[in-house]
Amino acid sequence: MITIAVSSQKGGVGKTTVSINLAHAFARSGKRTLLVDADPQGSVGLSLTRQSRTLNGFYDAIADPNFPLEQLIVPTRLDTLALVPAGQCSDYELGGGAMGVSLHRVRTFFRMAAAQGHEVCIIDTAAGLFGVTADVLSACDAVLVPQQAEPLGVRSVPKMLEALTRMRVVNPRLNVLGVVMTMVQNRLAESLEAVQALRNLLPQNMVMRTVVPRDDLFVRASAKGLPVGVMEEGAGVLAVFDNLRLETENKLNVDTARS
Ligand SMILES: Nc1ncnc2c1ncn2[C@@H]1O[C@H](COP(=O)(O)OP(=O)(O)OP(=O)(O)O)[C@@H](O)[C@H]1O
Ligand SMILES: [Mg+2]
């Protein structure tokens, strides 16, 4: 099983939107995909299953390693897509989780998910690269970094990639897939300039070629609890996330071939 975290130091940059729609794209390609909400605020769960606040989930598995994974998995209408909501256990939300044990438990969680036949696991993380997110990054194969296409946001991205690269001390396997630009406004010069500025700032292989356009459909889709691609008007967006999925697969394959 390949585990891909979607992370950023920043909030509101599109992590949850990218996680849901990329997971949906992997599932549509036939891969058995598990979408995990590792954000204690639980937005994936809220979006996909309205009752998710009352469901057990990822943080319950982190708090209690004997929690059976089967009880955490929520099926979706797509056979190949399942979801693990954030869950009930708020100790970690409050920073009160037992120190040092959660990395081990994140690893155990991934092992159990792989044993159940999932081929791809996408993990939506909370903003910031600390706490349980750091443990997820220490345990997973790859990380994708969404970044909103706006001029002021771009300058801090190289530092963030450096911080992620330093995670390789703990996790030498971590493949930093790169930055995916989100909420790109094709009719706004400043937005396109922000995309270009980031391409100038970073090595070519650190910025995904696929960009996610700004589209009100994303807001409407999350209000309805759906990946945008399943909405009637969402066909155009399917192609965006198919491309992002292909690019991600290519990067992972190149990496596997090298090692
Ligand atoms: N491409 C897009 N076009 C339009 N709106 C978008 C797009 N991507 C995300 N949004 C909207 O922007 C807001 C933030 O997106 P999202 O929740 O995915 O970010 P996040 O990084 O997960 O935030 P947080 O740090 O709070 O978890 C949401 O209201 C979402 O619907
Ligand atoms: Mg989020």
TrEMBL record:
Domain CobQ/CobB/MinD/ParA nucleotide binding: 4-228
Alphabetized InterPro entries for the sequence: CobQ/CobB/MinD/ParA_Nub-bd_dom, DNA_Partitioning_ATPase, P-loop_NTPase
Pfam families xrefs: CbiA (PF01656)
Name this protein carries in UniProt: Chromosome partitioning protein ParA
